[in-house]
Specification:
The chain has about 130 residues and is α+β, with helices and mostly antiparallel strands. The protein is built from 5 helices and 5 strands. It is elongated, with a radius of gyration of 16 Å.
Length: about 130
């Protein structure tokens, strides 16, 4: 299945232009039949993201649905959880919050499913 560059950027929570600067991202599909839009192979993008997820230290195997996974940046994590940046990092250091995934040299994201799962666990405790 082919997906547009904008859809890949949305999934990764980055700008479309930043995708051009990542050397290890799978190459877009080039074809005159596709026009000027850039498309990527969805399986390759999902495999690439899964390889980034699996590189996290102290984290077991990813058990979510990589096809429907969404990445969120720090501001999104703060909005969803209501926690400050320093509290999020403190919880990560205590292994009490999901670890971020490094997807670029200066870009880290969290997996929305893991953050939402963490929130559910917190509400069950109270």
């Amino acid at each position: 299945m082919l997906i547009k560059k904008a859809t890949v950027a949305q999934k990764l929570s980055v700008s479309s232009n930043s995708l051009d600067n990542w050397d290890d991202l799978p190459n877009p599909i080039q074809s005159a039949a596709l026009g000027k839009c850039r498309y990527y192979n969805a399986e390759q993008i999902n495999g690439w993201l899964l390889s980034k997820i699996d590189r996290r230290p102290n984290k077991g195997a990813y058990l979510g649905d990589i096809q429907s996974e969404q990445c969120i940046r720090m501001d999104g994590v703060q909005a969803i959880t209501g926690l400050s940046r320093s509290k999020i990092y403190a919880l990560i250091s205590e292994n009490a919050f999901p670890r971020q995934v490094s997807i670029g040299q200066r870009t880290s994201v969290w997996l929305q499913s893991e953050v939402e799962g963490w929130l559910i666990k917190q509400s069950i405790r109270f």
